[in-house]
Each structure stands twice: as structure tokens, then as C-alpha cells.
Amino acid sequence: MKPVIIAMGVVLLSISSFAQPPVGNALPGDVYGEKVKSKGAIELVDAVAQLDGGATLDGVKIKAKIVEVCPNKGCWLKLELPDGNQAMVKMKDYGFFVPLAAKGKTVVIEGKAAIKTTSVSELKHYAEDAKKSQAEIDAITQPKKEVNILAKGIIVVE
User: Fold this and answer.
1) Is residue 151 packed enough to be buried (19+ CB in 10 Å), middle (13-18) or exposed (0-12)?
2) Would you give the distance in Å from CA 115 to the centre of its chain?
3) How far is the first Cα of the chain from the last one, in angstroms, to the nearest whole number?
4) Domains of the chain
5) Measured distance CA(127)–CA(145) in Å, rounded
6) Residue 38 predicted with pLDDT over 80
7) Rounded to an integer, what distance in angstroms lies between the CA atom of residue 45 and that of residue 86?
8) pLDDT in tens, 88-146
9) Burial (Cβ within 10 Å: 0-12, 13-18, ≥19) of residue 73
């Protein structure tokens, strides 16, 4: 029985090491995760203004441009903020992924938004996912306060 369990573990590890983002062009109207409609979406900068008071926005629809997609699995995104910072988007329950082609596209994301402090270990993990150099990863020494969105659905709008 023990060899079977070990073999299953090896197979699962092998499969996960070859994980890739989904293939696709991320065309307007493409939906990832739960079905989302763009009606009622607010600009990311307006959502951030509401979050500055410590609020959490649940069920919010945010319109923004994607500036980075996790190259390993498409399991996270970064959105462009006017001040040069970025908002981090993770997929709810790791339940869906987006293709690399989503980079540069404008999307509407429905989910939960808050300002969160991201730990050094988590920041390093994202840097590794993004295939940053070891020097860039080693330079991460402080936690970062950032806009964090937990997406339950994403639709490409432009």
C-alpha cells in the first residue's frame, strides 16, 4: 500500500511541475471563473479610494488593465495603478486561471478587494513565479502593503 501512495505522490508532483497557463487569446467577451458582466464596474482607482479608509469591498466589479500574468499557471495577475504601483489579483479557491495573452488587456474582475500586507515569503514566491532573477528575489526584505483582489470571475472587455 505504501508504494502505491508514494507512486501517486510522484505522479501528482510531476503533473504540477508541468503546469502551464491555459492557452487562449483572451479576446473581448472571454470569461474566466464565474460568469461576470461588465455592467456596474468601477475603475480600479475609484475602488482604491474606497479601500483607503480600511474598507473591504465584497462583490465589487473592478475595471482595470492587466500588466502581468503569472507565467507558471496564470494563477495571479497584477493590475496597473496610476501611481505606478500594482494591485495583486488571486483567483478564488485557485479555481481558475487566465492565459498569458491577458497581459495588456482591460478586464472587469468581480470579487472581494481590500488593502492587505503581503509577507516577505509570499512576495518572494510571486517573484519566483514571475521568473525574477535571484538578486531581485533576495532584494525583497520587507512586507508590502498592497491592494489585494480575490477574483471569483473575470471578463475581458478590451
Assistant:
1) buried
2) 15
3) 53
4) 21-156 (2.40.50)
5) 16
6) yes
7) 11
8) 999 999 999 999 999 999 999 999 999 998 899 998 988 898 888 999 989 999 998 89
9) middle
Residue 86: name the closest of 105, 64, 106 by CA: 64
Cell numbers representing residue 145 in the block = 502593503
pLDDT 10s digits, 54-104: 889 999 999 999 999 999 888 999 999 988 889 999 999 999 999 999 999
Separation CA 1–CA 153 (nearest Å): 41
Please give the radius of gyration of the chain, using alpha carbons only, rounded to the nearest integer: 17
Which residues is 13 bridged to in the sheet?
none
Determine the 3-state secondary structure of 24 from DSSP: coil
Can you tell me the distance from the alpha carbon of 46 to that of 26, in angstroms, rounded to the nearest whole number?
25
Q: Please give the angle made by the CA atoms of 103, 108 and 113, to the nearest 5 degrees.
A: 100
Measured CA to CA in angstroms, residue 125 lies from 44, 59, 77 at distances of 25, 27, 14
H-run or E-run covering 122: helix 120-129
Question: How many helical (H) and strand (E) elements, i.e. helices and strands, does the chain have?
Answer: 4, 7
